[in-house]
Amino acid sequence: MEPAREARGASGELACDAVLGLLTDLLEEALPAGRRELVTAHLAGCPACSGWLAQLRATIEVLGCLRDGVVPAPALTALRDSFHTPDPPEPP
Length: 92
Hints:
Distance between the termini: 22 Å
InterPro entries: Anti_sigma_zinc_sf, Znf_put
Protein name: Putative zinc-finger
Keywords: Metal-binding, Transcription, Transcription regulation, Zinc, Zinc-finger
Strand content: under 5%
Order of helices and strands: HHHHH
Pfam families: zf-HC2
GO molecular function: zinc ion binding
Number of domains: 1
């Protein structure tokens, strides 16, 4: 995870790429309070990042409905790992 000072734009707010990299931690309630507030504030004003969060939540919901054994373990591992990559995708 990059330091907050490097993840901020000129206005002092978190940049989209930093926010995208923190969405999984946000959903897992693994962010410190200060960082969580910065991410939440960014999401409130950024439709692109809010859209990514909505997609992530929808993906989690759909995958949570799958029965054990439907998706091979290596595929689940690869999917899980893709959400923890150091370089998140560009916002739409």
